[in-house]
């Protein structure tokens, strides 16, 4: 069965490049994928809403600390084939809505005729410049402004970001990648960036309906620092962090529908492994393996547990140590691909697709790229191993932060701030709008044509034109849709429903940017944990040495991070 072509091929390539090059976004270190947070930590977002049948809230006002977050107003567009939920399951569509059913969500011209400069990241090869890019030209025409985009490759982003900050010459719109970890972030925001509270707080956001439609399931949809709203998160991604992708046809061959417990998993892994034939149950890469999945299986905390004003890190728990021992046992038993420590993430992906290993723990948004790659063989069937618990009891699934980072505005007049918000509002136009069609597919006849089933399909020019990263300035919330693959929405929707049914959050998610020690030390500490755990998992150090690893983490910055997070969480930051 030949791979489906056109838009699906292009989107798979774009996602593959983004997921493999930008590990900090879509493939967080798997050591950090791990337990139950309390249902309401201090300062957590509280949402109350009325709901439509089978859909997300129509309106919800949320608060964090002393800030009233924007009212959530769901977009009322073409009816999806599969409903969204307030918890974070996306709406699914088997086909693109007919043109006569598309909604024009932006009636007035957003811009005032001048230049708007945006700085953002890219994981794609460079697209055509504005002068030779009909899609970009049409977007600027519809915006009523010249949107200039400085899209910097991820490998150079931190250096370029710091250079811009040092120069003092800020662009109008600044994308902040989470890996920057600016230690004085709150001070910089207060001195250099616009406070968006008057324009977005509560019902004020209704002036920008596509921003009001950004998903409330993301605790950081709107970035609150200094008792104000300072940023808007790009919703590219979802609340789904990581998943154990699997060749379901292999499980079907064993008669396995659902793993029941840790003993059952080991039994299945043993049956899937045939080292003499070069096949293993599990794979991974030098930046992460299956440990995070088993930490979840043993119900270790989702990075942190918050109880009675005190934080406990996952690695400090007995549950996490049990996961370390269990993972080591699987490796010692030959069930894990032996070259994992020297395999890059780019190298692990094709090995999973071709069946060298049956399962791979990876960023959940990679599902769409794997889905396309699995089309090379009609017998392949991509699914995930649904969450289960080591003892067969209540499973949990650990969410991550949806969105890839906020955009901030440099300080400007109220009229200029409103213009910039109108630009974001245009770029955030949801699935089912004329603006979404333009933002994602470009100009009809030049960048895309319609298939016989009514799905837009990118032309060769469109595949190049749409590489330009206006979607990393702002974009629509995800919709479960894939041109020419109506079954995709159903498969993905079922996976989302199954995972979110047992989901818990990391309680520190909204607060880590407020910890200077986190900004300075989390990167080195994460690398230290990866290196030391790798030694233990692959038999170069005993499991008993894990206690010393934890002590080193504490003394080298972990306790300082904990103290700062406890302080801001206790103060309802």
Architecture blueprint of SSEs:
Elements: H1 7-21, H2 23-26, E1 49-51, E2 57-60, E3 63-64, E4 67-68, E5 72-73, E6 115-122, H3 134-143, E7 146-153, H4 154-167, E8 173-175, H5 185-192, H6 197-200, H7 209-212, E9 222-225, E10 228-233, E11 242-247, H8 248-253, H9 262-272, E12 280-282, H10 291-297, E13 304-307, E14 310-313, H11 318-332, H12 345-353, E15 357-363, H13 367-373, E16 382-384, E17 397-398, E18 406-409, H14 414-427, H15 434-441, E19 448-450, E20 456-458, H16 460-465, H17 486-500, E21 503-504, H18 516-537, H19 546-570
Parallel strand pairs: 6-7, 6-8, 12-15, 17-21
Antiparallel strand pairs: 1-2, 2-5, 3-4, 8-18, 9-10, 10-18, 11-15, 11-16, 13-14, 19-20
Describe the fold and architecture.
- The protein is an alpha+beta fold.
- Helix content is 36%, strand content 14%.
- It is built from 19 helices and 21 strands.
- It has helices at residues 7-21, 23-26, 134-143, 154-167, 185-192, 197-200, 209-212, 248-253, 262-272, 291-297, 318-332, 345-353, 367-373, 414-427, 434-441, 460-465, 486-500, 516-537, 546-570; strands at 49-51, 57-60, 63-64, 67-68, 72-73, 115-122, 146-153, 173-175, 222-225, 228-233, 242-247, 280-282, 304-307, 310-313, 357-363, 382-384, 397-398, 406-409, 448-450, 456-458, 503-504.
- Strand 19 and strand 20 (456-458) form a beta hairpin.
- It is globular.
- The model is unreliable at 1-63 (pLDDT under 50).
């Amino acid at each position: 069965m030949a791979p489906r072509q056109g838009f699906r091929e292009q989107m798979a390539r774009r996602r593959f490049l983004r997921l493999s090059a930008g590990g900090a976004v879509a493939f967080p270190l798997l050591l950090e994928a791990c337990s139950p947070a309390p249902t309401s930590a201090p300062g957590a977002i509280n949402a109350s809403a009325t709901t439509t049948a089978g859909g997300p809230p129509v309106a919800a006002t949320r608060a964090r600390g002393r800030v009233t977050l924007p009212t959530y107003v769901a977009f009322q567009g073409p009816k999806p084939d599969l409903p969204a939920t307030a918890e974070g399951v996306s709406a699914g569509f088997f086909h693109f809505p007919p043109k006569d059913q598309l909604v024009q969500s932006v009636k007035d011209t957003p811009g005032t005729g001048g230049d708007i400069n945006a700085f953002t990241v890219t994981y794609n090869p460079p697209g055509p410049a504005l002068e030779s890019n009909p899609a970009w030209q049409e977007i600027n025409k519809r915006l009523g402004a010249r949107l200039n985009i400085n899209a910097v490759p991820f490998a150079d982003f931190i250096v370029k970001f710091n250079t811009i900050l040092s120069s003092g010459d800020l662009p109008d719109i600044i994308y902040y990648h989470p890996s920057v970890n600016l230690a004085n972030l709150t001070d910089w925001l207060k001195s250099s960036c616009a406070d968006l509270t008057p324009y977005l707080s509560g019902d004020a956001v209704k002036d920008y309906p596509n921003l009001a439609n950004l998903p409330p399931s993301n605790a950081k949809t709107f970035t609150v620092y200094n008792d104000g709203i300072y940023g808007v998160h790009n919703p590219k991604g979802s609340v789904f962090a990581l998943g154990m992708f699997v060749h379901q046809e292999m499980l079907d061959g064993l008669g396995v529908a659902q793993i029941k417990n840790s003993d059952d998993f080991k039994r299945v892994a043993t049956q899937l492994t045939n080292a003499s034939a070069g096949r293993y149950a599990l794979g991974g890469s030098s930046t992460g393996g299956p440990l995070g999945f088993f930490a979840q299986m043993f119900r270790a905390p989702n990075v942190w547990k918050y109880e009675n004003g005190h934080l406990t890190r996952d690695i400090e728990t007995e549950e996490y140590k049990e996961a370390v021992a269990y993972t080591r046992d699987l490796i010692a038993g030959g069930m894990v691909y032996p070259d994992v420590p020297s395999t890059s993430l780019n190298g692990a992906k094709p090995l999973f697709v071709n069946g060298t290993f049956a399962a791979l723990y990876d960023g959940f948004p990679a599902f769409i790229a794997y889905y396309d790659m699995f089309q090379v063989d009609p017998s392949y069937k991509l699914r995930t191993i649904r969450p289960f618990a080591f003892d067969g009891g209540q499973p949990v699934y650990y969410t991550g932060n949806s969105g890839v980072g906020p955009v901030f505005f440099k300080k400007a007049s109220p009229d200029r701030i409103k213009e910039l918000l109108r630009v974001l509002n245009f770029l955030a136009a949801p699935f089912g709008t004329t603006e979404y069609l333009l933002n994602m597919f470009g100009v009809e006849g030049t960048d895309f044509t319609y298939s016989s089933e009514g799905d837009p399909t990118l032309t060769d020019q469109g595949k190049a034109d749409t590489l330009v990263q206006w979607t990393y300035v702002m974009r629509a919330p995800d919709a479960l849709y894939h041109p020419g693959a109506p079954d995709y929405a159903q498969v993905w929707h079922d996976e989302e429903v199954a995972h979110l049914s047992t989901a818990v959050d990391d309680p520190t998610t909204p607060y880590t940017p407020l910890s200077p020690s986190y900004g300075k030390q989390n990167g080195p500490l994460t690398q230290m944990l990866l290196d030391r755990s790798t030694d233990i998992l692959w038999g170069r150090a005993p499991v008993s040495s894990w206690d010393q690893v934890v002590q080193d983490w504490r003394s080298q910055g972990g306790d300082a991070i904990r103290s700062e997070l406890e302080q801001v969480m206790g103060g309802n930051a």
